[in-house]
Amino acid sequence: MASAELQGKYQKLAQEYSKLRAQNQVLKKGVVDEQANSAALKEQLKMKDQSLRKLQQEMDSLTFRNLQLAKRVELLQDELSLSEPRGKKNKKSGESSSQLSQEQKSVFDEDLQKKIEENERLHIQFFEADEQHKHVEAELRSRLVALETEAAQHQAVVDGLTRKYMETIEKLQNDKAKLEVKSQTLEKEAKECRLRTEECQLQLKNLHEDLSGRLEESLSIINEKVPFNDTKYSQYNALNVPLHNRRHQLKMRDIAGQALAFVQDLVTALLNFHTYTEQRIQIFPVDSAIDTISPLNQKFSQYLHENASYVRPLEEGMLHLFESITEDTVTVLETTVKLKTFSEHLTSYICFLRKILPYQLKSLEEECESSLCTSALRARNLELSQDMKKMTAVFEKLQTYVALLALPSTEPDGLLRTNYSSVLTNVGAALHGFHDVMKDISKHYSQKATIEHELPTATQKLITTNDCILSSVVALTNGAGKIASFYSNNVDYFIASLSYGPKAASGFISPLSAECMLQYKKKAAAYMKSLRKPLLESVPYEEALANRQVLLSSTESREGLAQQVQQSLEKISKLEQEKEHWMLEAQLAKIKLEKENQRIADKLKSTNSGQLVGLAQDNAAVSSGAGQDEAAAKAAAEPVQSTSLVPDVESREDLIKNHYMARIVELTSQLQLADSKSVHFYAECRALAKRLALAEKSKEALTEEMKLASQNISRLQDELTTTKRSYEDQLSMMSDHLCSMNETLSKQREEIDTLKMSSKGNSKKNKSR
């Protein structure tokens, strides 16, 4: 194979080489022809230069002759001017001489006229020859430049082809070397593979003999020991408990939780959409506060008012489905019984949509027939009516597929197992169709709202209601998009999880067998849990012996120790009662002391005795600074207070009552404060929990956006690298082309400079001549 590939490559390369060689020969012929043409043009240029030089020499000789004749004319004019005065003196004698001079003058004039005419004719010939020479020279120069550019281009093409040819030769040589190395390595690998195949055949033979012996042994054991094989028949095999896949269950519960959140958002958006639509009917085109609306809109509003009874069960059905998926169950289509209830709730909502659809279409037609409706608004209403029909059709399609998915848990013959994957795929297509319809509704309703806001009769209530409907439609669009993308991301997992079922079988046969299997699974789990009960902790043997010796050596029995404990507890209670009693006595004594001190101070103030006032102040300072016992002792020692320290029974009871009432009030205030704080903390915890849930949702959305952004960034980076490489290649090619053009231009400039220098030298030589 490698040699055949090499021969094919070499044949292709030989064909390319022959083509390039033929092109090279053609280009060489063209270059030779152009070089011959340029040589002929150079020879013509030389001939023209020679003729030009001859003409310039003739012109120089003519100018020299002309100058001589002009000098001679001037001399004759001078002689004539000198001869005129002499003729006046001797007119008679000079008549003969004047006649001679006139004859000579006429001869000279004729000769001069001829010379002037000849000079003029030569000047004209010279000028024409010069102009023709310049024109021919310019044409030849332009042709020379064009030919040189063509020659440079041909040379650049030839250089490029030769370079390409050399590169292809090098590449072919490198490929040849690589292929030779590869062929050698493949030959070595083929030899090794032959050796390995021989070893594997020997091992296979040994394993076949070993497995055949084991098979015979196991078949004999099965025939002798196994009375019944429950995996032979699918009806019995469906009752076997499959292996517990905890990862699968956690994944399904996570997916169900996400679906529940999306359905809750969708239910909220649907409730808002129907409610705000009902409010809009009461406002536009006729405000119910000003005038009565049409009977059609009244009936439509009445139906829309019942939307919660059809929309809320969707959330409840999804919640029951989520709660039915736990870690201990087996989640497949045959065991998800709660999917049937969700399908029924979805069917009731579809009936609600069918019921309100004709009223909705008639309401839009009524808006179109009103005098306030413009042509643009009428077009938007028609588009919205089409969108509402599409929305109902999409929900019906989705309900059909959900009902089909609910059949395996109730009617096993209603849907074949081979059609599960196609139904799941169609559910994804229906969700994407629902998203597209909601995008169209959002677009058309936003256009409708902007047109209605520009109407002169648009009220603030209508504008607010339109904004609310638009926000609910946007929420519906976002929710549909999230559900569609979520389902598309997980549909492969749904299809792969269809094989999760009994061992060595195609799946559960019926819902009854699946229910029995779940009961057997619970019993098996309970049995395994009972087997895995931890043993009670026991005391080590050495420690038990030591404790027994301690018990035997002790003289006190258990009853004696119990009596001692009881006696000590009674003593502690008595001491606590006495402590409380004496604390109350000390408080009462302190209160009485303060009263007596106040009374003494009042008496001393009335008698204006400074000593007694100082004594009362000393007593007050002592009573406030000392402790409870010292205050009672000093109060008993004073002669003035000795009769008033013994409290009566009524004042003592009042003081105790007031003390306990104050204590109760303080405790109730503390209890109320604690209750208020607990309620506040509970509200804060609920708010924080809600914020945490929202933050998690936003985190998930941001992670998805970040994944998409990273994918876009990687894609853009790849595109940037490819474009950068292509631009670099183009720039390198352009730079090579510019370099070659600069070289040719420099050569042409050098040739033009040499031609100019040579023409200047020739003109100087001609002038000197």
UniProtKB/TrEMBL annotation:
Classification via InterPro entries: PPP1R21, PPP1R21_C, PPP1R21_N, PPP1R21_six_helix
MF (Gene Ontology): RNA binding
Cellular compartment(s): Early endosome
Region of interest: Disordered: 81-104, 743-769
Biased composition (Low complexity): 95-104
GO cellular component term of the entry, any: early endosome
Protein name (Swiss-Prot/TrEMBL): Protein phosphatase 1 regulatory subunit 21
Source species of the chain: Prolemur simus (Greater bamboo lemur)
